[in-house]
Write a structure and sequence with these properties.
Length: 191
Amino acid sequence: MPQPEQESAAMQGDWVALARIVKPQGRHGEMAAELFTDGVERFSQLQRVVLFPVAGAPEIFPLERAWPHQGRVVLALGGIGDIDAARRWVGAEVRVPLAERIVPAPGRYFISDLRGCTVWDHGRALGQVSGWTELPGAAPLLEVASPDGEILIPFAAAYLRRVDLTARRIEMDLPAGMAEVNHPDPPAGRE
């Protein structure tokens, strides 16, 4: 099954967001962060990160350690040594330069790369990917903005024929009626 990667879900400009700081974690400046990437192992490849605060200028920090904890990542960054220093960064995004973005495995795509692609079904343009919805244990749903409203389409290997990110095109062979399932019912006619 093709799988979109989450790493660049919050990509902006020349940066890729890997996580968002949600709270201090411990007494020594560690911070718990919500992951935007598929796993904590991504952090093992980094020596530094840049924190982009809600307000103010970004700052570079050496990454001393990163480990999983209750579905999040805990980060120990050089220069942040106590709870008060960690609290200052709550809400900040943990980013790396776009040039350091990992290359997805064949058949896997960054969700942010799919945003803006036109979805085609049997040669008919349905609309552009505007977002996605994650479902536990199932293929994510592409949110496709069409002239008739939003369409939710499973990004599943069974329906996917081709993804061409350069052409901004996703070609699918959907079951009959799937593209219309989410459309509102037409108004009832008068007798």
